[in-house]
Fold:
Amino acid sequence: MLVCRSKGLLQRLLSPGSNTSSRDYKVAVVGASGGIGQPLSLLLKQNSLVSELSIHDMRNIKGVEADLSHICTSVQTNAYEDQQLEDCLAAADVVVVPAGLPRKPGMTRDQLFEANAGVALRVACAVSESCPGALLAFVTNPINSIVPIAAELLKSKNSYDPRRLFGITTLDVVRARTFVGDFLNVNPAKVDLPVIGGHAGKTILPIFSQCCPSFQCQLEDIRRLTHRIQEAGTEVVNAKDGAGSATLSMAYAAARFVNSLLRGLSGEPDVMECAYVGYKSPCLPFFATPLMLSAKGIEQNLGLPHLDDFERESLEQMLPELEQSIQKGVVYAKEKMEKEECQK
Structure:
């Protein structure tokens, strides 16, 4: 049945150029005792825009809270166990969700979908009850299907605002900047490279034609780096030899994205991030593009960047796969909700 809230240096690393704000926010992390949830919570405990950090998980959450509570920052931490999800989310400004099963070697996307789809339904239902105005951001994979699932549930509760629902694809941007920085022998923090589409395999499309500094290299280099960005998750899974997937880099990326959401909420101008959303999305109902963030969540979807011939071809090739993933999420959510309604 579906269940219906050294600090200065780190802040600059997470959000170069951000201003400070007197606004304090409650952030809730669902899945906080997992491989991504723990380092993500650690980073958020050091964020000067956060006043309250509420963490939730199925097990071991009290130990994580005790550990975090020893860190000498002013952020208040509160832990909530399995059946306390609504209490955790009450009055949250931002809800970030790393909960779910991580990808393992040899696991198909269908297997990952079956393991994690229920997470989206449960969290979206709890958000609709406890904090319908919150910004809701999913880390849980497969993002391409998870976000449409959450959207369908929120629609059924009359709580869907496409400006406030996100799939976090920041890790693709972080990886793209890192790999390009290494290739060009420049500081990755100085690289600006939009990544559009989805968050799996060939649906991830870095736009090298819009890279700054300019990426004046051979097409073969672009193809090779594009493939590495698309398969970087598998690179980590294989390197960990069955012991896990990307956790530290994902936690960093999620903390960076949440920080951008908070900066937008606090009224800072010109806060931009790429994310997978359903607000004025080009091509398909859900699509990752550069966004301008504000107190509304999404202030403006900046749409597709200018594409060169290779990028347009890659876009056309990936659209059927991304559309199929979206439809799979929509169908799953509707079937589950119909079943629940019949059982009442």
Remarks:
- Confidence is low (pLDDT under 50) at residues 1-22.
- The chain is about 45% helix and 15% strand.
- The longest helix spans residues 309-343.
